[in-house]
Structures are given as structure tokens and as C-alpha cells.
Design goal:
Blueprint (H helix, E strand, L loop, with lengths): L2 H31 L4 E4 L1 H8 L5 E6 L3 H8 L5 E3 L7 E7 L5 E8 L1 E4 L8 E4 L3 H6 L9 E4 L3 E3 L4 H7 L1 E2 L5 H7 L2 H13 L2 E2 L1 H9 L9 H12 L4 H11 L2 H4 L2 H4 L13 H14 L8 H9 L4 H4 L1 E2 L5 E2 L3 H15 L4 H13 L13 H11 L3 H10 L6 H25 L10 H8 L5 H17 L4 H16 L1
Parallel strand pairs: 2-5, 10-11
Antiparallel strand pairs: 1-2, 1-8, 3-4, 4-5, 6-7, 8-9, 12-13
Length: 481
């Protein structure tokens, strides 16, 4: 590494480490006094060198977890032991400037999987070098020995950081054999840091992709979430597809690479999907990744491969791909153990993403606007963003027309919301009023009447009481007949 590059990295690191030094050194002196070694490690050192160290600090030590507990309990403001089975103790400490630091202290360790287990076997190491060699990538295998700032970098992480490349401390085959989830992490870090992955690492990921099958769905899901919510998700997703990992954890994504017919009658769905994801990101609030929106963008067209038809006139159709895609989305997200609310929201957005195009050229009736808002419910803002993002045509005239049509729709929604409180559409008569007017007890008929009155409200807008009663009695007469 050139002196200029090294100096730049060092200056950033020194500035970051000085910021956290009061807390880090204070903790280290407690360990030193007890005859133990403590070092800032892994992502904390990497982020310090990149000038982006936050208030989450990772440490490694030769002290065993019970010894760590004894040392931090009198010192920390709060302590938790949820990771103690893996050698990790967590705590919170408020620094002299008032910042809260979230701290994790892990005993030197190594971990490995066997072919039949989804959980790592944890064993403790005897030296910091033992601990660093088990780390996933060289840029995460650096440490700063405390107190003081003695730099520990036995595997060339500093140079790889400057070159923006991901390598493993040992052979990638050994690293991924120990923990197959590291293959997902390679894609995640590429997406988060905008780093390249070394060719030998890519080769090992490709050769060992099937090893990801022994990792629990929850751990795979968490890495996928971090990748999708990163700054450069395309980079990580491309790597997952290239290596065959996506075929095992998210097979719907590589399946989007439909072969183009010779006349190019339909667009590249895979490339379109990645572009939609990036365009959806552009519509997010700055610094606030929206996992639901991004997953919906990534999955919105996964029904196309199953619904593709070549029509007699030469066109290619994907009829009802949004309905098929919604079913596929729910199934995949359940397999990855997503929470029910996230699964439901993403599935609903996939199902609704074509609704805008079902209303033609923008000549929306008030009834159509009400139904659009009712069906979207609390997802309306995300649906706006997804629908706008789904336009990837290079035809400026067509893109402009779609944008204007959606501008018009949003204006109509805003106007009707102001007039009619669309966010909480209810029939003009509630269930109790329906029973009183019709003289019927609670039961299925009341539900049918309520549904009819809701349809009337959506179709016609608000009605005064007399008009609403008249419509209800008219419906009731038809039922009796």
C-alpha cells in the first residue's frame, strides 16, 4: 500500500478511535487489571478505518464468559446474556459525552458446522490470532489491542480494505466449510460496502453453494434483509445469482432471467426487476431503507415466468402474473420465516402492483379512486412508490405519459381524501343502524347488508341518512323478493 493511502486510512482510524477511547480504554483497563487481554475487533475496526464507526462496539478477549460478566456488571449501565452460549456478553455504557455505546464482548473462539447440523459448534481459542483466523473476511480480521492502539492485522486486512476487496483469512473453502452463511455475507458486504469479491472467493461460493442448505432459514433471511437494505443491493444480488446461491435461497430471482425471443418482444424481466428496486430506493426517505418496499420491488414480477404465453399475434403476455406472484411471494417468505405482518404487506403490494394500469389512460372515476385507496389501505404510500418505480421504459414519451397519469391519480386521491376521509371509508349506516332499520337480529344478513352499503359508499360517495336508508330498504326488498 502506498504511504499516501496508508496515511489516509490511519488518519480516519485515529480520529474514530479517539472518539470512543474514553469508554474503550476504561473497559480495557478493567480487563488488564484482572490479567486479561481486550481488543476492539472485526467490523468495529473495519468501520473505524473507513471513517464510519458508530456506537456499536465489538470486542474480543481471552476471558471466559463468566469472567467477562464479573468484570462488566459493576461497570456497565445494563448487561444482557442472550449470546452467552456463543461466548458473547452484551452491555450498554453511557460515555462521558452522553452517547450510549452498545457493546459486545466475545471470548476468543472458533466455530464450525457438521453436515447434519444447522447450528455452529463453538469452541474457545487461546489467542487473538486464533480468533482472527476464524473471521469471515480479512477486512473483518483486524483488531486494536487495548488500552492503547496496538494494531493487529495478521492477514492483510488493511491492504484489502484499501483495495476494496473481500478475501478470507484462510482458504475460502475452509472458511465456508466452517460456516456456510459466510457465502451470504460475502454478497451482503459487497452490497453494503461496494467492495469486489476476490475471484477465488467467488469460485468457492459457486462450488459450495449447496452448503447453504444446512444454515437455518432465519439466518439466511437476516443476511438477505441486510443485503436488500444496503446501499448497493444490485451488486450483492448479482453475486448471489452468479454463484448459484440465489437458486437455493431465493430461486424466484434467477428464474426471472427469461430467454429473450429473437424479436425482443418482451423486456429482460431480471434486469427490469433490479432497476425497479433501485428506482424504489430513490423514492425512500434519505437514510431510511424500507424493507417492505424493497422486497416488493424485488418480488413484484416473480409470477411472470409461470404465466408467460406467446400469443398468436406474436405478442408475449403474462396474464394474472400479479396474482400468481402474490401466491409465490407468500410461499417464499414463509419458507424464509419472515414475520407474518411483513409477509402480508409484501404479498399485498405484489398483488396490487398492476392495479393502476387496470384503469386505462388515467380517466379515473371517483368510484375507482375510492376502491384503489380502500384496497391499498395503509400500504397506499408504498404502492405509489412501487407503481412509479415499475416504469423502466426507455421511451421518454411513454414514461412521461405514465408519470403524468400517476400524478393525476395522486391529485385525485388527495382531493377525495380531503372531501371524504378516504383513509377510513365506512358505509353511511353502521351495523346497529342496519339492524334497527330492518328490524333484524345480528347474523349473516346484517353482514350482507353492511357489505352492500359499503359498495354503495365506494360507488357513489357519501350519502345523507335518508338516501342511505332508501338504498338499504331497496336492497332489502330485493332480498325478500
Amino acid at each position: 500500500m502506498s504511504p499516501d493511502r496508508l496515511s489516509q486510512v490511519q488518519r480516519r482510524a485515529v480520529a474514530e478511535l479517539l472518539r470512543v477511547a474514553p469508554v474503550a480504554d476504561d473497559l480495557a483497563r478493567r480487563f488488564q487489571a484482572a490479567g486479561h487481554r481486550l481488543a476492539l475487533v472485526g467490523g468495529s475496526v473495519r468501520d473505524a478505518l473507513l471513517g464510519r464507526l458508530g456506537n456499536d462496539l465489538d470486542f474480543t478477549t481471552d476471558a471466559r464468559p463468566e469472567q467477562v460478566l464479573a468484570l462488566v456488571r459493576p461497570w456497565a449501565d445494563a448487561v444482557w446474556e442472550v449470546g452467552i452460549a456463543f461466548g458473547t456478553i452484551g452491555c450498554r455504557k453511557t460515555g462521558p459525552t452522553g452517547f450510549d455505546y452498545q457493546i459486545e464482548i466475545t471470548t476468543y473462539r472458533s466455530e464450525a458446522y457438521d453436515r447434519t447440523s444447522r447450528k455452529p459448534e463453538v469452541t474457545y481459542g487461546e489467542s487473538i490470532e486464533d480468533d482472527l483466523v476464524r473471521r469471515d473476511f480479512t477486512v473483518n480480521a483486524m483488531a486494536v489491542d487495548l488500552p492503547g492502539t496496538s494494531f493487529v492485522d495478521p492477514y492483510g486486512g488493511l491492504e484489502d480494505l484499501a483495495d476494496r476487496v473481500l478475501r478470507t483469512p484462510g482458504t475460502p473453502e475452509a472458511s465456508f466449510g466452517d460456516d456456510p452463511l459466510r457465502m451470504m455475507r460475502a454478497a451482503r458486504f459487497a452490497a453494503q460496502l461496494d467492495f469486489d469479491v476476490a475471484p477465488e472467493v467467488v469460485a468457492a461460493m459457486t462450488a459450495m453453494a449447496d452448503r447453504i442448505d444446512i444454515v437455518s432459514a432465519e439466518r439466511v433471511r437476516d443476511e438477505l434483509n441486510k443485503l436488500v437494505c444496503s446501499a448497493y443491493p444490485r451488486k450483492g444480488l448479482l453475486l448471489l445469482v452468479e454463484t448459484g446461491l440465489a437458486a437455493r435461497v431465493l430461486p424466484e430471482l434467477p428464474t426471472l432471467r427469461l430467454e429473450l425471443d429473437e424479436h425482443h418482444r418482451h423486456k429482460d424481466v431480471y434486469e427490469h426487476t433490479l432497476t425497479v428496486l433501485e428506482q424504489a430506493m430513490d423514492l425512500e426517505a434519505p437514510g431510511e431503507p424500507d424493507l417492505v418496499l424493497r422486497l416488493a420491488a424485488l418480488l413484484h414480477d416473480i409470477g411472470k415466468p409461470r404465466t408467460r404465453r406467446f400469443e398468436d399475434d406474436g405478442r408475449v403476455s403474462f396474464h394474472h402474473h400479479e396474482v400468481v406472484g402474490a401466491h409465490m411471494t407468500k410461499k417464499r417468505m414463509k419458507a424464509l420465516k419472515y414475520p407474518k405482518d411483513v409477509t402480508d404487506d409484501v404479498t399485498r403490494l405484489v398483488e396490487l402492483h398492476l392495479r393502476f394500469h387496470g384503469y386505462g389512460t388515467g380517466e379515473w372515476t371517483d368510484s375507482a379512486v375510492r376502491r384503489y385507496v380502500r384496497d391499498a389501505g395503509p400500504l397506499l404510500d408504498r404502492l405509489h412508490k412501487l407503481t412509479r418505480s415499475d416504469c423502466t421504459t426507455r421511451n421518454r414519451r411513454k414514461a412521461g405519459a405514465l408519470a403524468r397519469a400517476y400524478d393525476s391519480l395522486e391529485e385525485r386521491i388527495a382531493k377525495l381524501q380531503e372531501q371524504e376521509e378516504l383513509d377510513s371509508i365506512r358505509p353511511d349506516l353502521d351495523g346497529n343502524q342496519i339492524m334497527e332499520i330492518l328490524g333484524v337480529p345480528p347474523g349473516p344478513l346484517v353482514g350482507k347488508a353492511y357489505k352492500h352499503m359499503l359498495e354503495m359508499r365506494l360507488e357513489n360517495g357519501p350519502m345523507d341518512r335518508d338516501t342511505a336508508i332508501g338504498e338499504l330498504k331497496k336492497w332489502w326488498s330485493a332480498q325478500e323478493g
